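Input:
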Amino acid sequence: MKTIKNMTGQMLLLCGFVLCGLGLAVPAQAADDPALLRSVQSRLTIDTVIRGDFTQSRQLAGVKKTLVANGTFVVEKTRGVLWRTLTPFPQTTRITQGEILQKDGDRVLMTLRADQEPAVNAISRVLFSLFAGDLSTLAEYFDYHGRLDGDAGWQLSFTPRDAGLRAVIAALSLEGDRVVRQVMLTSAAGDVTRIAFANTVTAAALTADERVQFE
Amino acid sequence: MSASSLNKPPLDDRRYARRHGMLAWGWLGVLALLAAALLVHVLPWRGKIDTDLLALLPVDERSPHAEAALKTLAQQGERQLVLLLAAPDAATAQRAAQQVRQTLREAPLTLLPPPANVETLLGLYFPYRAGFVTDQDRRWLDDADQAAQAQRALSLAYQPFAGSVLNWRDDPFGFFGNWLLQLGAASPARPYGDTLMVQTAGRHYAVLLYQLTQSAFSSDLQVRLDADLTTARNELAHQFPDVQLLRAGVVLHATAAAQQARFEMSLIGGGALLLCVLFTWGVFRSFKALRLILLSLAAGALTALSLTWLMFDRLHALTLVFGATLIGVAVDYGVLVMAQHLNDTSERWLRFRRLLPSLALVLIAPALAYLSLLLMPFPGLRQMACFTVSGIAGAWLSIMLWYPYLVPPQMPVTPLAERLMQLLRRWPRWHATRMQWLVAAAAAVALGVGIAQLKTGDDIRSLVNSDPELLREHIEVAKTLELPSPAQIFLITGDTPEEVLQHEEALLAKLTPLFAAGTLTGFDAVSRWLPSQQRQQAAQQAQQTLTGARAVLAKELELTDDWITIPPTAPMSADEWLAQPATEPLHYLWQGRSAQDGRHSSVVLLKGLHDAETARQLAAFNDAHTQWVDKTAEVSSLMGRYRELLSFVLIAAYVLVPLALLVFFRRQTWRVVMPSLLATLGTLAIMGYAGLPLQLLNVLTLLLVFGMGIDYGLFLIAQRGDARAFLAICVAAVLTLLTFGLLAMSSTPALRTIGLTTVLGIGLAWLATPLFRPHR
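Output:
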């Protein structure tokens, strides 16, 4: 294709602005302790499917009331996370590679897609590894420190390495034993979300109903 | 003066010779001055040889706004160099980018700072956020009732994964977050750490954006950058074998063109000179003859170079390449006088006076033909015209003035010259026999059929060539970074900045179906980053309908009452936006106020525009404030108009020049004109049969063929079919064929076209000239 476009050139107009990006592969810092990460990972039971109940409480900046929600969740190793809130109102959030979808029954409330916003890939990857207990993926994006508690327990705190991710997440902490028991997520804007997990079980495969939800 | 007066002896040789001597010395003085001027100029001029192919393009006839806009875009683009490092994974791409940065740290480049991040954008827009609502959310606001409104905010309040950079309280409905998100459509590149990255299916690209420290056409910069990039590429191939380096920038094409032009200039110029010397030596076998010819050539080259350098502020490389063919034309004069000189033992002044009238006539036709190039709106061609006309004139004057002093006293006929002259005796001549009329009729039919098949083609793209590898890389870079077309733009005007933004929004609204259908994939415009104040106010207005829902939410979530109402804020103005340092990289889209008419303007750039059909569709969106500027189409149509204009000039030349020649040649005039007429028609017919389209450059070349072809006829007829005149024509034609034949091998399509057309035209004119020689 020979066009004047290419001839003039050649003129390369790059838009100066870009949205936040989410960092990865910035070299790990000295505070990071791969041995700790390996120990925690060895205490976690990882199977194809993890499911259970959650209680989520959010403390929004400048809002007095603590927002409490309950529901169930399913994580499938290759597909993603299904987050089903039951109270105070039913709502489903599905996080898959390249898409975050929020539904109110059958009505789609919101979709974020990586082909429109590349940052979605990184966000969904972080959230996915958070619930799947995939610590090595988290360690790509975050600096971390933590400790082992007793024979089975552990705690880890993460802070984003990359300015792009820091614009969204200020801090992240995880607690657990053979499964993740509690997550605390502080957004850059100051909203704090605590999630406690209960009745967590692992399985080898999704149920038929869950599989439909992932379609 | 008539043909019969050509042999009259001079009346007062001595007085004439004295006057002539003064002129000859004077001319030598002028040349010395020109040489001095050239020396003074050459040093500061070094490195200023222009290789920008755009210099061949016409000076435009469009509005000053459009001209300024295209110029800004060109300047914005000219100094950019983009490197992409493509790798199977992001980490490798990033490491490779680090290494290339390291290698290029001494290169004549500045790494552009990373673009504004989301925090900067947030700081910039946050105070005005009530006015920033996407079209989609505006439509939602029109439809949603209070319950739906409250539910949307509640969903977001309970949603921990929205990934918003804002807290819920400041953007409970997510409108501002969505508006910020749509800014991301402007570019697929995102900063990862300190590197810009683009991810496409299976490929990760690290982006390095550089700005040149000097002009892309500076040969000093080109040489250094070329070496540095080669080093970077070699190191990369060694250490990161799976990483691919992709380059895009004006400078790369300019470097390739400069190298090509330098190579061709020496090849064509040197080759033409060598072949001409060899052939001339073969014909005349006289050192003195060769000396006069070479001296005239040198004088011609000196005149051409110094005058062109004095008259133009840049010298284009193509001028030098085209100018190299000057050798073929300038050498004609020397050849003409030398050939007449063979076996002539009469006194040199007598010989000179005999030659003078034909010599005077032979300058006029080619000089006029080359001068007609000056009529063209192409700066490059004007420079070529200046170069060739001054070169020809310099060579001609040298022959005229120095001939009596430098001509060898005697020149015997050499075997090669004898053989060429013999050729004339055997050459067919037009006797108007029945057989010849039959052949002529058949030839006329063949010419007619060929010319009837002739197509025209004015597409500028056919004249431009680029290194295929650079082109491939450029296309991949443009595709990966989703770069808009800089030559096909919408120009938006208005009396105030606000009007410009409103007109942009009106246009983008009209383009929505094209974006939805995928005919266009995106756009760049200031209104994406700064909605008009009208739109900002309307968005604020629309949000007033949320008061009910906000009251419900305040009660439910225990917020204070002052949160319920959104206090009106002044919308962001263009001046405020422009004053922000973070918006600097976008200012090229904003043309601002024109000093000429005080109106404001901006450009809207489109992405994914590839076909001419869509471009035509877009032209339909023109109105009083919106102008579709399609440089590709404009240049092509301009080329077409000038092709037509030049065709008329050519036809006029064929009518008017013979009329003028009637004065000298009376009833023999047709013999002078026939060869070039046949050559022109023959060239057109051959192009028709070969399927070559007729372009502006062909017509231009046919004008040159006209000039030289008339010369052949004129000289042969003026010398009454003398075999020595024929020899001169043979030598002149062979030299022209050699030089333009070399030009036809150029890799620049424009020069190739000129070379090929000249070879056809001159070849035919040469073959046809003896057909019409008179009876002795």
